[in-house]
Amino acid sequence: MKSLQLPKVMFGTWSWGAGMYGGDQVFGQAMQAEDLKSVFDLAIQNGLNAFDTATAYGLGASEEILATLMSAYDRRDVIVSTKFTPQLAEMYENSVEKMCDASLKRFGTDYLDIYWIHNPMDVERWTVGLVPLLQSGKVKAVGVSNHNLEQIRQANAILGEYDLKISAVQNHFSLLYRSSEHAGILDYCKQHDITFFAYMTLEQGALSGKYHTHNPMPSGSGRGETYNKALPQLEKLTDAMHVIGQKYNANIAQIAVAYAINKGAVPILGATKPEHITDALNATHIVLNASEITQLEQLAQQTGVDTRGAWESPMV
């Protein structure tokens, strides 16, 4: 992972493209390459060159959009992260390598920087499939996503039999959802030189400051169904984030991102507008003090909001 020279944040592409599990179904929008070119270019120009996707996002649609955008650049200048999803394995003859090969073909490249097992369905069966990918150089580093501590240890032990290891863990982590911290996963990652990536740091916009009771998320979208009912409970928290943000000349979204960075995570942030890039860049320069972190965590706990996704198993 160190050789990748990761920036402090990575951009997620779940909302890029349409189709099954795609942006139109989950986020109420379907962004295409032409909509995203200026956003992608701005990110690269500012050294924020890491992008996370998955075969499952629109069944390859997100990968194809990212491939189109990165084609204008030297492959070595873009860090590409994508995933093997066990639930789609039958489409690729139950082979981790064949799903990876399909991603490589979509990207028009012979290697991926990070390849993940998307979720912990049958850890023993699928983790071993990462071995030939590492040994052949098709992937530089591997990680696991949505795994609890026991499953992370199990995956690491399987790879350890081949003198290999997990280099990354990607779990849901935000002010509102600190389950990976409470379960000891953050500590385990620090102890074993594993990079922890935090997705849904902004809780799909609920911690961005953009949405509130008078401006809810798009109705009919998955995130609207999840978060709109919780918006009233978040007001004290987001008000405090606003006040803290004034000290750093930052907005609410930047404070949410800075919080995750200050906890030792690499946030994975949705990027569909130029301001998402500038927000992320500004957040990388904010260092919250201990009292501010404590205040935010206490207010977050007081909301009583549980944002665990339907796809997630409890970490503790």
Rg computed from alpha carbons, rounded to a whole number of angstroms: 19 Å
| Sheet with most strands: strand arrangement | 1-2-3-4-5-6-7-8
Task: Provide the helix percentage.
Answer: 40-55%
Question: What sequence of helices (H) and strands (E) makes up the elements?
Answer: EHHEHEHEHHEHEHHEHHHEHH
What is the global morphology? globular
Tell me about the largest β-sheet: 8 strands, parallel, barrel
Q: Structural class, judged by helices and strands?
A: alpha/beta
**What is the mean pLDDT?**
93
Which segments are poorly predicted (pLDDT under 50) over 5 or more consecutive residues? none
Estimate what percentage of residues fall within beta strands: 5-15%
How far apart lie the N and C ends?
A: 27 Å
Give a quick set of tags describing it.
alpha/beta, 8-stranded parallel beta barrel, globular
Question: How do the strands and helices of this protein lay out in sequence?
Answer:
Elements: E1 10-12, H1 23-26, H2 33-45, E2 50-52, H3 61-70, E3 79-84, H4 96-107, E4 112-117, H5 123-127, H6 131-136, E5 139-145, H7 149-160, E6 168-172, H8 179-182, H9 185-191, E7 195-199, H10 222-227, H11 235-247, H12 252-262, E8 266-270, H13 274-283, H14 290-303
Parallel strand pairs: 1-2, 1-8, 2-3, 3-4, 4-5, 5-6, 6-7, 7-8
Helix pairs in contact: 2-3, 2-13, 11-12, 11-14, 12-13
